[in-house]
């Protein structure tokens, strides 16, 4: 996303396949966001979006969050992965 300076789910299939193979996940989903100043504001946006909220409240057993800052622009890029084992 940093390279494109835009939100995207590019390469989700690769991330999903990796989580299935390495962690034995049965199901995988993700939420992405960018340019929110705080993790709380990104999370609030996800909670206010029906699709993203469905992932947060879904039938998952584990999750992970990544926050990466573009060193050139200072924009924050968020990825929240959900898996069911």
Task: Provide the fold topology.
Layout: H1 12-23, E1 27-34, H2 39-47, H3 50-56, E2 62-69, E3 76-84
What does this structure look like?
By secondary structure, this protein is an alpha+beta fold. It contains 3 helices and 3 strands; from the N terminus they run αβααββ. It has a 3-stranded antiparallel sheet, with helices on both faces. It is globular and about 35 Å long. The relative contact order is 0.26.
- Say how many strands there are: 3
Largest sheet, if any? 3 strands, antiparallel
Low-confidence regions: none
Order of helices and strands: HEHHEE
Head-to-tail CA distance between termini? 27 Å
Structural class of the helix and strand makeup? alpha+beta
Radius of gyration: 13 Å
Number of helical regions: 3
In percent, how helical is the residue content?
25-40%
Gross morphology: globular
The spatial strand order of the largest sheet comes to 1-3-2
The portion of residues forming beta strands comes to 25-35%
Return the average pLDDT rounded to an integer.
94
Key terms:
33% helix; globular; 3 strands; alpha+beta
Outline:
Helices cover 33% and strands 29% of the residues. It is an alpha+beta fold. The protein has a 3-stranded antiparallel beta sheet with strand order 1-3-2, with helices on both faces.
